[in-house]
Amino acid sequence: MNDNSVLLITPWDREGGLATYSQYLTEEISDNTNLEVFNWDYESLFERGSSIGAVRDGIVGDIRESDVIHIQYTFGRFLLSGLIISAIAKLFNTETVLTQHERFENIPMAKFVYYYHQFLYVFVDRIIVHTTARKEMIPKLHRKNVLVIPHGVIHRDMNKSVEINEPIEILVPGMIRPIKGHVEIIRAMSHLSNFDLRIIGAIDNKQYYKRIVEEIEQVPTECSIAVETGFIPERELQAEIRGADIVVLAYQRYTSMSGILAHCISWNTPTLVTDCKSFRSVINTEHAFIPSHDPIGIAKGIRSIGESKQRRKIISKEFKRISQECSWSNVAEQTENCYQQVQV
């Protein structure tokens, strides 16, 4: 067993989601940590659900040879295999760190999944979450093992102009799925003038996309709404966010921290987000918040940020603060400290 040897179990060889998160994190991990990556990404539903994936391709040997395993975790990515991997680590006296990237209210059989995780956490030495709001959702039995480490942000020492010209473009970037609140934003367009809307991203839910198209057909013809579907490479996504006048993330209230929001903060792009606990744990200005499921309230927020240079300046100042405090170098340092603490 190597000193401070860490096995990071995560999606890896692609762009987006947990893979991009892990790539940014590992770039900042110091040479004091001997970190290896096990690419957990293309396992079939059967492999994940039956836990066969947890004992294939040498992963057991890698766990045995490590001091710590760190699982970048969502339930759908691991299913039963997450429990088996953690149990194998416990068998070999290897410490387990698990970063919990999601909440469970918006998935099928939410109550069953919740109780399943209470059992999973028995085998986990430290649970990392991104916000204090998410920590409070974990029962007291396991809360003593929960560590809040913010979602990383690429820190850029830059000043973005807060000047924007009409028509003002509203950008809604990222995977097209029901949690994102596209329908409410489209309905808000009926209450706005001199604003254009662009929705960009891959379709994750075809029925939801069909509903989006139907909603657009109901909007007055003078509203300019464009939908561009397809996977967006990381560099292109960042360029879109950097160049946007306004980004709107009207996610449902049970959302967890967002990688898209991290990019908006990084590029200092004026952004409106749902008034929910996860985002409140990160952003400390009322000017950035809009109500969920309220097209009129969303339109009011968009109009206000579009018309008020001062409001955009306040959001910009807040994003600079977050970018510095939540830089990937700070996140990596806190993560390495976690690795050391679980070995004591």
UniProtKB/TrEMBL annotation:
<dbReference type="InterPro" id="IPR001296">
    <property type="entry name" value="Glyco_trans_1"/>
</dbReference>
<feature type="domain" description="Glycosyl transferase family 1">
    <location>
        <begin position="157"/>
        <end position="318"/>
    </location>
</feature>
<protein>
    <recommendedName>
        <fullName>Glycosyl transferase family 1 domain-containing protein</fullName>
    </recommendedName>
</protein>
<keyword id="KW-0808">Transferase</keyword>
<dbReference type="Pfam" id="PF00534">
    <property type="entry name" value="Glycos_transf_1"/>
</dbReference>
<dbReference type="GO" id="GO:0016757">
    <property type="term" value="F:glycosyltransferase activity"/>
</dbReference>
